[in-house]
Amino acid sequence: MTPHRPIYLDYASTTPVHPLVRRAMEPYLQLEFGNPSSLSPPGRRAAAAVERARAQAAGALGCHDDEVVFTSGGSESDNLALKGAALARRGKRHLVTTTIEHSAILGAARDLQEHFGVDVTYVPVGEQGIVDPAAVGAALRPDTFLVSVMLANNEIGTLQPIADIARLVRDRGALMHTDAVQAAGFLDLDVDRLGVDLLSLSAHKFYAPKGVGILYVRRGTALAPLIHGGDQERQRRAGTENVAGIVACGAALELVEAHRPETCARLAVLRDRLVEGIEATVPGALLNGDRERRLPTNANFCFRDVQGETILLELEREDVYASSGSACHAGSQDPSHVLLAIGRSPEIAHTAVRLSLGAPTTRAEVDHVLELLPSVVDRLRRDHRSLSFTSS
Amino acid sequence: MTRRVYLDHNASTPVHPEVVTEMTPYFADVYGNPSSVHGFGRDAREGVDVARERIATFLRVPPDQIVFTSGGTESDNFGVKGLALARGRGHVITSRIEHHAVLRTVQALEAQGFTATYLPVDAYGAVDPDDVRKAIRPDTVAISVMHANSEVGTLQPITEIGRIAREHGVPVHVDAVQTFGKVPIDVDAMGIDLLSFSAHKIYGPKGVAGLYIRKGTKMVAIQHGGEHERRRRAGTENVPGIVGFGKAVEVRGREMHDEARRVSALRDRLWEGIAARVPDVRLNGHPTNRLPGTASLCYRHVESESIVLGLDLKGIAVSAGSACTSGNVEPSYVLVAMGLPLDWAMGAVRSSLGRSTTAEDVDYVVDSVAPLVQKLRQALPVGAA
User: Fold this and answer.
1) Can you say how many angstroms the Cα of residue A182 is from the centroid of all Cα atoms in its chain?
2) What integer is the mean pLDDT of B239-253?
């Protein structure tokens, strides 16, 4: 059976808004437009909608409502976690993170290093792309105020042992943050089972619109605000609430959480079919990241000899849409820092293609890609070889 | 059925139907990440680019000098901190009647070692440009003065302040959240280096705003990560929000002048209607040099919350102060800065008119206010004893 085109396999970059989520947010654009800080009835109704969404998010995180802070997105959540903890630190000046974090974490860490006198240790990962808790433990210092390790990697999908890391970190009196932007809908986000003090989410990764995120902040955590102004979000984050976006975020998180077991089971089968199919049909394809400990949605391969971008262009001609890695890094000429961190050479790293599945992904779509990809790679490799012969 | 009259447009506005229509495809059809190089990404990128061009056209500035943010508050934080932190230390000038987004940002900078001057305002709520001149020091790194205050609506002498700042080589940030799309703004003629403006005050969605940054202005980013917005603001773009913002600005470009005239007339009708029927009432702010739709009135010896609640029962939504500070029982810091005595300041009620406001609405409000104030004064004469 031929699947509908286009075939979108870039759900790790962003997702379409789910129809139910769209319906939930709809009234809050034109009809219920009050400012939640306003005491007028329209304002109070908007505030109530925000609080309902907060309760939905708290349900997914297993936390108190007052521990949910709505932000403008995953990048803001990550910045708030790192800089907010840094600005509230009492004499401590050491931050621990890893070499495979999202650019929002690495960017915030660099800013703290350059402008706020913070020492940063970047814990390396093994070639499977997994952080070793012992390596984090060894990096801790008496003046470590925060450790930030992502729950699932955005490029290679590897799952990190956050609960084990958090135990070590919190025993040593530091705060534990996890960037869970890629994990929502696929992993348990219960903040107590994870043992984290801070956790970042981005709504547009789970079928809600762009422009909304969440930072979970455990009660009692010393965190300075980054955006000052009104008293919104219990003074953790000023600014008129993006009511429609927040309503969508709460509805979407509840929705993906309710369907998590069956979504994961179904997608893991499709992912394995994709991974095994590519390995069986594309000679020399290298799977990036651990085979088992990865998101049920992520297949990331280096294809050697052929630039990832070239493969993507060929796929796009066939109406198949994937990515070479992080969208936030797309267009950059530098090889992926994640692939370098797992020991790929810059040349090999440039040949990476990430296929990321989502709730709408079907078996027919996966099979279509499996039919297409071997011939695309084979043709490009032959072009590559003939080019190298003519140039030599 | 009770009539519903929304006179709280300075707090927020409904999204314009044309704006909703423009945004709709970007939720579930054109949903790509603008950073993605493929077709889905490129289509989303195009939506963002069109919005940026529409806003740039409206402001008559190059599109690459507009940065999208998550709201007016972020724009204010970005503008003021971006200027200050780029210079490391120094002195910041602002006014006592700024929005909390500026005031608390300046306070946060003070906690980090910056110094600050909070300029006074006159009885109309206007900053004296001469005070700006006197406050400038060799180490002054930024001046931030709002274009119009959200509570009283008095327009500030930005052009004069801009000229003085330029003479001294100090960059000027202007919070234009309340004026953008309501009164003309010419960043060149007014000497503005940074301008904050927000979508949800002009019938765009909440959660999106802009900061104009004049080319060559020394700034640092405050949100780090990917290379979005030419590395000035990291984070995946709020594509539907930005698309809606662009459309809202385009619509305002069409409507602004006629609306300003229409809404000004309605505001005058409101004020004159109330003044004719209610004793001991005053209009706050400058009588003419002001935002078109804003009428801040003080009813002496009445508590503003009682009026707000009483009008609420009549289906009328007004505000007791700026929305972000609602819930405070303190008098408005803006009115205090203007020197209003407490017995007046405690009775402040702001009506902010907008697109949907009609003459019938205004007459209904006047008819509701007059007996209400009379009743409240008889029942509980605050401070009159």
Assistant:
1) 3
2) 98
Predicted local distance difference test score (pLDDT) of residue A333: 76
Is a pLDDT exceeding 60 seen at residue B324?
no
Q: How far apart are CA B337 and CA B123, in angstroms?
A: 8
Whether B35 and A330 lie within 8 Å, measured CB to CB: yes
Least confident range of A151-160, B1-10, B287-296: B1-10
Q: In angstroms, rounded to a whole number, what is the distance separating the alpha carbons of residues B215 and A234?
A: 36
Shortest alpha-carbon distance between residue B183 and chain A (Å): 22
Query: B167 vs chain A: nearest CA distance in angstroms?
Result: 30
Mutate to test the interface with A, among B4, B12, B102, B232 (most CBs of A within 10 A): B12
**Token pair for A207:** 């079928």
Give the distance from residue A265's alpha carbon to the nearest chain B alpha carbon, in angstroms: 25
- Dihedral (CA of B272, B273, B274, B276) sign: positive
Cα separation, A368 vs A3, in Å, equals: 7
Helix crossing, A243-258 with A41-61: angle to 10°? 30
Q: Which residues of A53-75 are buried (b: 16+ CB within 10 A; e: fewer)?
A: bbebbbbbbebeeebbbbbbbbb
| Mean pLDDT calculated for residue range B56-75 | 98
Contacts of B20 (CB under 8 A, 6+ apart): A29, A30, B244
A40 — pLDDT class (breaks 50, 70, 90): confident
Nearest C-alpha in B relative to A323: B36
For residue range A323-368, list pLDDT tens digits in order.
Answer: 987 665 666 678 999 999 999 999 999 999 999 999 999 999 999 9
Task: Name the minimum distance, in Å, from the CA of A390 to any CA of chain B.
Answer: 30
Q: Taking CB atoms and an 8 Å cutoff, what residues of chain A touch B223?
A: 75-76, 79, 226
Minimal CA–CA distance to A144: which of A98, A178, A94? A94
Residues of A known to be catalytic: 328
Rounded Cα–Cα distance for residues B129 and B147 (Å): 13
Q: Select from A104, A229, A242 the Cβ nearest to the Cβ of B234.
A: A104
Q: What is the pLDDT of residues A262-302, one digit of tens each?
A: 999 999 999 999 999 999 999 999 999 999 999 999 999 99
B86 Cβ contact list (under 8 Å, min separation 6): B218, B219, B220
Which pLDDT belongs to residue A331? 60
Which DSSP string corresponds to A79-108?
A: HHHHHHHHHH-SS--EEEEETT--HHHHHH
Angle at A196 between CA A195 and CA A200, to 5 degrees: 145
Q: B142 with B243, same domain? A: yes
Put simply, whether A241 touches B (Cβ < 8 Å) is yes
Q: CATH number for the A19-258 domain, one of 3.40.640.10, 1.10.260.40, 3.90.1030.10, 1.10.10.10?
A: 3.40.640.10
Q: What is the mean pLDDT of chain A?
A: 95
Chain B residues with CB under 8 Å of A30 CB are: 14-15, 17, 20
One domain, residues B178 and B191: yes
First to last CA, chain A: 45
**Of the partner residues B36, B76, B205, the one whose CB lies closest to the CB of residue A229:** B76
What CATH number should be reported for the domain whose range is A7-15+260-386?
A: 3.90.1150.10
Three-state SS string over A153-220 comes to: CCCCCEECCHHHHHHHHHHCCCEEEEECCCCCCCCCCCHHHHCCCEEEEEHHHCCCCCCCEEEEECCC
Per-residue confidence at B325, pLDDT binned at 50, 70, 90?
Answer: low
Q: Do A228 and B39 touch (CB under 8 A)?
A: no
Q: Which two tokens stand for residue B324?
A: 């972000």
Which of B219, B236, B251 delimits the end of a domain?
B251
CB B161 within 8 A of CB B175: no
Strands A198-202 and A213-217, how do they pair?
antiparallel
Does residue B306 share a domain with residue B272?
yes
Q: Is A307 on the interface with B (CB under 8 A)?
A: no
pTM of the model: 0.95
